[in-house]
User: Fold this.
Amino acid sequence: MTDSIFRQFSLEGKLALVTGAAHGIGFAIAEAYAAAGARIAFNCSSRDSLERGLAAYREKGVDALGYVCDVTDEAAVQGMVSEIERMAGPVDILVNNAGIIRRTPMHEMSAEEFRRVVDVDLNAPFIVSKAVIPSMMKKGGGKIINICSMMSELGRETVSAYAAAKGGLKMLTKNIASEYGGYNIQCNGIGPGYIATSQTAPLRERREDGSRHPFDQFIISKTPAARWGCVEDLTGPAVFLASAASDFVNGHVLYVDGGILAYIGKQP
Ligand code: NAP
Ligand code: GCO
Assistant:
């Protein structure tokens, strides 16, 4: 690979804030950003998670700034971003990764439960993006990456709140791209397929007889790659969307799903 192409994917000198990155997809993306040369800031929702996350980053040789901050709390987010800017300078790359899911039949879901999922998965990316965009505008550009989902395109039983939020997040991505593209801010999404993390662990639990969970088998049958994704499958696409290599990519959701969205499914 020639030096100039390699440099396009470098994050040297950049400061990345990855929300919800004490573990899981966020941690893997932040670790990859550090390997590409970026400095890392992250947040999570509990001190316990923060301590475990900081230890995990140290183990990987990453000197990350870590914060306990509820992404739905605008004052707390503004305070965290101000502290990051004081400690390390303006945020160059924001990954809105923090997210929750509740799997409940819609007619049994409380309005409060629905609101909480939408608050974390959609309102919070608005809040955190709003907190970093002014500095990006001032310094002439930035990157915002929203972690969307297959449910930005498809529905399924029991995930009404999550699908509504992730569908909205796809459109928020397009709107930020539209409104701030002129400031050299690119906003794109990553739509992971089914990834083996704590969030999907209930869908992969082995049955008492040791057989695969029916949903586990279902996803493998619906995925041309015939496997669940792993967090490492997302790191290359995430570095691409955070780097100069994607400076003319804006408002796009890059699905990293092993082909699920392209596939009608095998004839039974
Ligand atoms: P995860 O392991 O459950 O991690 C979610 C992270 O979000 C945790 O670090 C959690 O903090 C943080 N978080 C949740 N609510 C928060 C709040 N109010 N304030 C601050 N932090 C909060 O999930 P994951 O699988 O890595 O998923 C990460 C993102 O990818 C989510 O947006 C998810 O919807 C999306 N996604 C996942 C998959 C998949 O198959 N796994 C596929 C598509 C999209 P704590 O550590 O403190 O709990
Ligand atoms: C579910 C899963 C999915 C994945 C992911 C797929 O219950 O269907 O949790 O929602 O988390 O979002 O892209």
In short: Residues 101, 103, 149-151, 156, 159, 162, 192-194, 199-200, 203 surround D-gluconic acid (ligand 2) (CB under 6 Å). The beta strands are 15-19, 39-44, 65-68, 93-96, 142-147, 185-192, 253-256.
